[in-house]
């Protein structure tokens, strides 16, 4: 049994919400527009602030997941902060067979080293710790990551 509204004196019968939409050929919640495809951006950034212990506690599961990724290429850390040492990696239970730590030299900066690691295609993810990235640096990392079919992750520690 369906409810049929009765017309009141001098007023047309009131249509239910959906009957009115159907009569005007509209969808209930506006036109369904497919979500735009996300840009294939290969550069991500994350900011962590607080005590060093707290930041390492938040960072550990992310790095652990990346070190155990299905992709068999390296997880590369470029010039990590001193707190992320080999002993911390060992204590935290990372798959150290899949992690590569690279330190920048005076002749080769961290940005150049990160771009080389990305372009080589030997790493699925290259992590950097730049306090700020200007537009040109962002572009270099994006292009290098696209060429090497890799991801670039910059972590800002505050």
UniProtKB/TrEMBL annotation:
GO terms for biological process: cell division; negative regulation of cell division; SOS response. It holds the Pfam family SulA. Gene3D superfamilies: P-loop containing nucleotide triphosphate hydrolases. Keywords: Cell cycle, Cell division. It comes from the Bacteria. This is Cell division protein. It comes from Stutzerimonas zhaodongensis.
């Amino acid at each position: 049994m369906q409810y049929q509204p009765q017309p009141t004196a001098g007023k047309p019968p009131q249509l239910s919400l959906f009957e009115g939409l159907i009569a005007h050929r509209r969808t209930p919640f506006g036109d369904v527009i497919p979500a735009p495809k996300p840009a294939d951006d290969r550069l991500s950034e994350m900011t962590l602030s607080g005590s060093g212990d707290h930041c390492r506690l938040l960072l550990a599961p992310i790095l652990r997941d990346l070190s155990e990724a299905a992709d068999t290429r390296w997880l590369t850390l470029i010039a990590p902060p001193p707190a992320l040492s080999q002993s911390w990696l060992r204590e935290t239970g990372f798959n150290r067979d899949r992690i590569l730590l690279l330190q920048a030299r005076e002749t080769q900066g961290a940005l150049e080293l990160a771009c080389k690691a990305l372009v080589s295609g030997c790493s699925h993810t290259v992590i950097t710790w730049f306090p700020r990235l200007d537009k040109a640096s962002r572009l270099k990392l994006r292009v290098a990551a696209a060429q090497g079919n890799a991801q670039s992750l910059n972590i800002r520690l505050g």
